[in-house]
Amino acid sequence: xxxxxxxxxxxxxxxxxxxxxxxxxxxxxxxxxxxxxxxxxxxxxxxxxxxxxxxxxxxxxxxxxxxxxxxxxxxxxxxxxxxxxxxxxxxxxxxxxxxxxxxxxxxxxxxxxxxxxxxxxxxxxxxxxxxxxxxxxxxxxxxxxxxxxxxxxxxxxxxxxxx
Length: 163
Known about the structure:
By secondary structure, this protein is α+β, with helices and mostly antiparallel strands. The protein is 31% helix and 27% strand. It has one domain (16-155): Heat Shock Protein 90.
């Protein structure tokens, strides 16, 4: 298992302030490991780059990471790769797996047990995209860093670890 992160303190030419990649093992612990990486990444975005990361953004990012990594582990053989990228206003969670099958959210059914993950991810994110790769696919979900209030302005509530 490994990770990499941009050491540059500025904004890259692609608009990202910070990014980190992780190779996750295929065991059950990799889901918790992925959530841990996401929280640490957002904490660094808040402290090192002074970005307005709300508590909701941290919670939603953990949920999205959990759902996407769980699906990758469940449906694809082999490794799972996760990349986190942050801009001034959002965090992108990208998960790669080796299965080329493009997932589709099922029709909502409150009586169905399980298989609601993609529905949940679509409901809590700003954007969701799937890209087929020469091997497998990449699923990217975008999450706002600041909460939106009823009047449309951003609420910048501090998240865990904030002063």
